[in-house]
Amino acid sequence: MPDYFAYNENWSSIYEQFTSIHGRVAEADETAAFLERYCSGGSALELGIGDGRVAVPLSDRGVRVEGIDNSDNMLKLLEKRTDLIKTWNGDIANFRSDKRYNLIYCAYNTFTVLITREAQIGCLRSSAEALHDEGTLVLEIPVPDMVGFVSGQKTTTTFMDHENTFINADVHDPLNQNLVSTLLWFSGTSVRSLPYRSRYVYHQELDTMAECVGLKLAERWGDWARGAFNEESRRHISVYRRAGL
After folding, report:
1. In Å, what is the CA distance from 177 to each residue of 108, 117, 144, 199, 202?
2. Which of 128, 118, 66, 73 is nearest to 93 (CA)?
3. Would the pTM count as exceeding 0.90?
């Protein structure tokens, strides 16, 4: 029986349209430019590579990109775009690689799809082991928005234009820092229901988990354009390197 929350089953057919509406396709070149600085002429591994939204423009800049994803459907979408990027189906919480990379990165909200602290630490540990000694790990993480919950529930209109309306319904599990969510996507006369589960993490906790596996924060930005990270930021781009370097 398919997992109700499986991103493989629920998201692959609409992922490009969804990310385009949210401006993520438009910012892919900016993301690639940010990442290229840490691996110019070198190698990179993307955790949760999906359809190659970021990996393809990064590869176009001369970086040797590889990727992991747990969705065969998403990897097939990437294969249609390019044959230059090596990928494999795997769990980003516990992966091993014979290669060592100049850069490992995880974009959008992919890291939070790991719904336990142990899985998130496992991802950080696997990444640290797969980096060159002077390699870099870059994570894009949403800032938790816990305002507006009533009795552990919240419903929010997250996007609206002349054609599409997105409504997010969240149930908060504070003991596990989990959000059990359903995205309702209204478009014309149709509606899609897209369930997902995530574990939110504050930047201070992320730094502590990174330190547990020998990584240390080097930089933190509010966006891919290197804007300041402050109390109004809705996400952060955190750059880690091996402690002691």
Report:
1. 18, 9, 10, 5, 10
2. 118
3. yes
Please report which helix (H) or strand (E) contains residue 136, including its range: strand 131-142
Paired tokens of 142: 């949403």
Buried b (16+ CB within 10 A) or exposed e, 105-120: bbbbebbbbbbeeebb
Instruction: Dig out the tokens for 30 from the structure.
Output: 């900016």
Q: Which CATH class is domain 153-198?
A: mainly beta
Q: Report how far Cα 243 is from the mean position of its chain's Cα atoms.
A: 23
Tell me the per-residue pLDDT of 218-230, one tens digit each, with 9 for 90 and over: 999 999 999 999 9
**What does the CA dihedral 152, 119, 45, 220 come to, rounded to 10 degrees?**
50
Phi/psi-derived region of residue 83, left when phi > 0, alpha when psi is between -120 and 50, beta in every other case: alpha
CA 170 to chain centre: 19
Taking the C-alpha atoms of residue 166 and residue 168, their distance in angstroms, rounded to an integer, is: 7
The DSSP annotation for 17-60 comes to HHHHHTTTTTTHHHHHHHHHTTTTTSEEEEET-TT-TTHHHHHH
> What 3 state SS string does 165-192 have?
EEEEEEEEECCCCEEEEEEEEEECCEEE
What are 229's two structure tokens? 């990270």
Fold of 7-144+201-242: Rossmann fold (3.40.50)
Indicate the domain borders of the chain.
7-144+201-242, 153-198
- pLDDT of 5 higher than 60: no
